[in-house]
Structure formats: C-alpha cells, structure tokens
C-alpha cells in the first residue's frame, strides 16, 4: 500500500462488538475488523460519501446522529458492512463480513486518497466561493463497478424518486441482510449478486416500476459482470468505453458510474435533463444551455470538470423553474 495513503494503518479485530458503535445499535457476537487512517487534508465525510446514497431510504447506506456513515457493499471477497467516522482528524473504520478486509484496504481510496484537489483552480467567483464553503470535499473511488452501474441504469429517463424506489424495493427483496451490527431499525441490505439480478422475474421488475428496456440492460450487464468490474482498474476513458459496449449503457450512465467507481475528476455527465441548464445558468446566466454549451463553459476546468460540476451543484445556484417537472410514470399500475 502506498505510504501516502496510510503511513501507519492500524487494524485490529474486536470480539463481541466491543467497538465505538453508537448507542442504540444492535450488538451481535461477531468479529469487527478495524482500521484508522489519517487524511492528508481536511475531510468532509458526508460530502465525500454522499454520492453513494441513492435516496433517503437507501438500504445500502445510512448515516447516524453521531456523524458515522454506514455502507453495505458487495466486495470481490463477499458482502461487507463498513462504518466510518471522523474522530480528531482521523477516519476510524469498522467492518464486518467476508469482505471486511477488502473494504478496509480500500478505505483511503473511498475517502479520496487518490484525489488531487490541489490541481483544481477556480475560474469563476461562484465556484471559488463554493469551494471555500464546502471544504473537505474529496472525490471518492470505490473500486466497484456493478454497485454503481445498476442504480445508474435504474435512473435512466425517470425521476429520481422512481429510480430510488426501484433500487430500494429490489435490493430489499433480492439482496441479503448486511453482515454484523447495523444502525438500529436501519434494515440494511447488500445488493444482489449478478446471478441473482439475472434471475429476477419479469413481473418483479414491473412491480418495482422498471420498464423492460432498463431491466434488459441490467440483465446484459449482470451476464458479463466480471468483465465490467475490471473497468474499475482502468483509465476512466477506457473504463467508459468498456461499459458502453453493453447495449443500453451510454455516455450518461458510464460517466455516472466511473465518477464513483474510478474517482474520475474529469468525467462529465452529458445527456442529463437538468445539468446543462444548471451549469449554463451558474457560469453564464444561460439557462438554455445544452451539452455542447455546458462543455464549452467547463473547458477552463479540463482535467477537473467533474469537480467543477459538483461544486456548482453544491452551490445551490440553480435557474428558476419554468418548465413542468418530469412526469412520474407508474408502469406497475398498467
């Protein structure tokens, strides 16, 4: 492991749940592997890990009142539950399940160890102000493709509420309970493995509000999941090309995936219904901007365009809404 990630990582095994778990968390007689890591710069945990959350009721992601972030994930070594908290400038992590060691090994990357915010130079006042207000934002890298690819496919051409509902229903029904203790009443689940995704009956997709096009794309991806997971170790451009070989996965979905799996600071989401107008309005007062105009405005940030876009979204400076919201569909009622 590179010394710039963790000069002296600490990892122990704690029996009987005797760890710094918040009060109210169910205790189980399981082993928790632990690790501490000191970030090289200030870290905002919620800003950094927030992109992994798919809605307030995401069964794979929880936050607790003490500021801890809980994450249920499927690693190459198996399911894992990871809890991360910041204490006195250090990240303290605990993990349970067969994939616990893998999750802890990836902790620095998850918290942005490979990110280079020092390479970012704000070119607009709004971006500079937001960067100052949102200190500690780092671009995460999960090293996992399918756990981001599948919810991104579910978000194609529908409202976020519809996509979040589908993800929640399918993970709860076909995933498995997260290993170890989890926050009280959280009912956390690890997403299904590729084989399980491929065996979900057509009527269950329908009940979750997922049309045949998106379901078919997920099934195609599940059949070649090992090859897609290899993309996490690729250059972001090559990773996107690998993902886009699957019919139904285009530039929007591949960008949304590699931003999280590969920690890609320059991959911009094109084909989004709202993002070009938000970027155009924030940087040039142009609420009618399309993808071409958005990329022109982000050109001064080449190499860090995704970071610039995230800061603009975090600024809250969005154009007044004139057009009606996207209509919600309900194919389950058809």
Q: How would you describe the overall organization of this protein?
A:
The chain is an alpha+beta fold. Helix 11 packs across helix 12 and helix 13 crosses helix 14 (291-298). The strands form 2 sheets. The protein has a 6-stranded antiparallel sheet with strand order 1-2-6-5-4-3. A two-stranded antiparallel sheet has the order 7-8. The radius of gyration is 20 Å and the shape is globular. Mean pLDDT is 90; it is low at 1-29. The chain contains 15 helices and 8 strands.
Key words describing this protein structure:
8 strands; globular; 37% helix; alpha+beta; single chain; 334 residues; 15 helices; 6-stranded antiparallel beta sheet; TATA-Binding Protein
Total of DSSP H or I helical runs spanning 4+ residues: 15
CATH topology of the domain at 10-119: TATA-Binding Protein
Element-level helix/strand string: EEHEEEEHHHHHEEHHHHHHHHH
User: Which architecture of the domain at 10-119 does the CATH hierarchy give at level 2?
Assistant: 2-Layer Sandwich
CATH class of the domain at 10-119: Alpha Beta
- Report the β-strand fraction as a percent range: 5-15%
| Shape call | globular
Return Rg in Å.
20 Å
User: How is the largest sheet built, in terms of strand order?
Assistant: 1-2-6-5-4-3
Low-confidence stretches: 1-29
- Describe the main β-sheet briefly: 6 strands, antiparallel
GO biological process, one term: base-excision repair, AP site formation
GO molecular function, one term: DNA-3-methyladenine glycosylase activity
Keywords: DNA damage, DNA repair
Organism: Streptomyces alboflavus
């Amino acid at each position: 492991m590179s010394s710039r990630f963790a000069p002296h990582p600490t990892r122990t095994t704690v029996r009987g749940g005797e760890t710094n778990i918040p009060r109210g968390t169910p205790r189980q007689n399981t082993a928790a592997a632990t690790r501490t890591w000191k970030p090289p710069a200030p870290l905002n945990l919620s800003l950094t890990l927030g992109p992994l959350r798919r809605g307030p009721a995401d069964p794979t992601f929880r936050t607790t009142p003490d500021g801890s972030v809980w994450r249920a994930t499927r690693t190459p070594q198996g399911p894992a539950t990871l809890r991360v908290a910041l204490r006195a400038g250090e990240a303290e992590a605990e993990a349970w399940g067969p994939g616990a060691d893998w999750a802890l090994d990836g902790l620095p990357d998850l918290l942005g160890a490979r990110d280079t915010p020092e390479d970012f130079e704000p070119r607009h006042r709004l971006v500079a102000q937001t960067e100052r207000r949102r200190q500690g934002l780092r671009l995460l890298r999960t090293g996992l493709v399918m756990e981001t690819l599948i919810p991104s496919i579910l978000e194609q051409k529908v409202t976020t509420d519809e996509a979040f509902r589908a993800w929640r229903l399918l993970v709860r029904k076909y995933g498995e309970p997260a290993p170890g203790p989890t926050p009280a009443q959280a009912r956390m689940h690890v997403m299904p493995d590729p084989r399980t995704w491929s065996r979900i009956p057509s009527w269950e997709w329908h009940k979750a509000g997922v049309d045949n096009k998106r379901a078919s794309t997920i099934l195609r991806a599940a059949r070649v999941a090992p090859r897609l997971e290899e993309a996490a170790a690729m250059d972001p451009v090559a990773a996107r090309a690998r993902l886009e070989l699957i019919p139904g996965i285009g530039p929007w979905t591949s960008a949304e995936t590699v931003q999280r799996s590969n920690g890609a600071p320059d991959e911009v989401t094109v084909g989004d219904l709202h993002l070009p107008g938000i970027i155009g309005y924030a940087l040039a007062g142009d609420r009618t901007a399309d993808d071409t105009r958005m990329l022109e405005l982000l050109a001064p940030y080449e190499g860090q365009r995704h970071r610039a876009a995230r800061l603009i979204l975090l600024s809250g400076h969005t154009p007044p809404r004139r057009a009606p919201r996207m209509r919600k569909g309900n194919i389950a009622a058809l």
